[in-house]
Each structure stands twice: as C-alpha cells, then as structure tokens.
Design a protein that fits this description.
This protein is α+β, with helices and mostly antiparallel strands. It is about 25% helix and about 15% strand. The N terminus is likely disordered.
C-alpha cells in the first residue's frame, strides 16, 4: 500500500523493490492522500455525532493542531493509546492521554 503525501508533511520513504513507500509520521487521517475510502466510515461517524457531545469546530481544530506537533502521532494514530486522534479530539469530554489538551 502506498500513501501519497503532499509537500508539507513529514514522512519516511522506504524502498521495496522498485517502489517507494512513504509513511507519514505527522498526518491526520484526513491528510493521508489515497486513503479517503479507507477512512470514510471514521469521517461519517464524526460528522453524525450528537451536537451535545461534539466539540466545537474551534476546539476540535485546536486539539488536532496540538496532535500534529506531537512526536507520538503516526499516520493519524496516537502511539500512547492507539486511538485515531481525530475521533478522540472531536468528543468534548475526552482528554489527551499525554495531558497535552
């Protein structure tokens, strides 16, 4: 599986045969080009959450900005707890397992 990345993401290129595979270390699932269908259910779930448990857009984006700077983010997942950070960040009552937000 090859993950395409834009110019602004950090990643590692691994050569396998004649193909280069790039793994994005600082990407959210919404930034993983070519993986849109794979994460479609996650985005649909987030979009359909009840408003009373869902964080405001401002809070959500603030949390994700912190996650994107974290060394423990790998391909949209937190390496501390294994969650998809977009899913954890969207629920108001949730907290970062590393106490960063």
């Amino acid at each position: 599986m090859m993950i395409a990345m834009d110019k602004n993401t950090e990643g590692t290129t691994v050569e396998k045969g004649h193909e280069a595979y790039r793994f994005c270390k600082k990407c959210l699932t919404r930034d993983l080009l070519g993986q849109e269908e794979y994460f479609k259910n996650l985005r649909e779930y987030i979009n359909n959450l009840d408003a009373d448990i869902k964080a405001t857009e401002e809070l959500y984006e603030s949390r994700l900005a912190i996650c994107k700077e974290c060394d423990l983010l790998f391909q949209g997942m937190c390496r501390t707890c294994g969650c998809y950070v977009e899913l954890r960040a969207v629920i108001t009552k949730n907290k970062c397992p590393n106490n960063r937000w």
